[in-house]
Specification:
single chain; about 110 residues; alpha+beta; 5-stranded antiparallel β-sheet; 5 strands; globular
Length: about 110
């Protein structure tokens, strides 16, 4: 997996009933009302992953962009709100899965 770029913007986080983080655990911060301000784009052979976080990097969201069909734009928003540890684990799993598909040098 390769980190493509990093950018800053102000986009709203989208609410989801299936999120892993329960806003009632921290009454001061509601992950559903936080705006995403930091973004990182990761590339694998099959997809781009746009990872967005709030300014304090406490909550993360994932947008998946399928690149298997160049003529079709297939984008899916992951409904989960991830914690820092959960997003780290997700990126490690994506990277480990990508290792299988990396071309090996001819010898």
């Amino acid at each position: 997996m390769k980190l493509i770029s990093m950018a800053k913007s102000h986009l709203p986080a989208y609410a989801s009933s299936s999120a892993k983080i329960d806003p009632s655990n921290d009454p001061e911060i509601d992950p559903y009302s936080c705006s995403l301000e930091k973004f990182e784009l990761y590339e694998t052979r099959a997809r781009f992953y746009l990872i967005g976080s709030d300014s304090s990097k406490r909550f993360f969201r994932v947008l998946k962009i399928d690149r298997s069909e160049p003529s079709d734009l297939n984008i899916s928003e992951d409904p989960v709100v991830y914690s820092p540890q959960e997003i780290k684990n997700l990126l490690q799993r994506i990277d480990e899965g990508n290792l299988y598909w990396r071309p090996q040098p001819c010898g």
